[in-house]
Amino acid sequence: MNTAILAPLMRRPEAGAILSLVAVVAFFVVFGGVNLGTMLGAASWVNFAANLGIVALPMGLLMISGELNISIGAMIPAGSMTVAILSGYHELPIVVGMAGALGLGVIVGLVNGFLKVRTTVPSLIVTLGTLVAMQGVVLSASVLLTGNASVALAAAPGWAKRSSAR
Asked: Is 137 a domain residue?
């Protein structure tokens, strides 16, 4: 390629990030094993990356705005336990469990936002308190509602299982 074309591109701040991404992907395709370059391998890491992206995108937006939410460390297990209690223990449909987890997240987010806006307490301290409180709430609710600290979901129905023999 002509250096006259590359020079303006390399002066852009995003060029370093894109080059780093290409280098990391190339490294793992070459050294990551036999399946990484295949469709099954790509599906595997995209599945994992989606879970991280669901958490990382809103956290990135918060960091850009100068805030920090560390209560996410307790909200992920709280949402999981909500689904497990509603759908696993009480045998409600999984959609009800997911709606309950979403509702819990909205309520905790509203409490965090209200405390941040109405008080002069920094978001780090507000969400640290929420983190500790939610850990206690999840453990207490689990023991009170189910009599156990862990709750299992039933096996997925046949239509929800994917065959690995494709």
From this structure: yes
| Whether the predicted pLDDT of 166 surpasses 50 | no
pLDDT at 156: 58
| DSSP label at residue 84 | I
Q: CA-CA distance, 2 to 95, in Å (whole number)?
A: 55
Q: Report d(CA 150, CA 143) in Å as an integer.
A: 8
Number of compact structural domains in the chain: 1
| C-beta of residue 130 within 8 angstroms of C-beta of residue 71 | yes
Task: Look at 65 and 155; give whichever has higher pLDDT.
Answer: 65
| Cα distance between residue 102 and residue 51, in whole Å | 16
pLDDT value of residue 159: 54
Of 126, 108, 133, the closest CA to residue 70 belongs to: 126
CA distance 128 to 125: 5
- Structural domain range at position 121: 67-155
Among 50, 45, 47, smallest CA distance to 24 is for 45
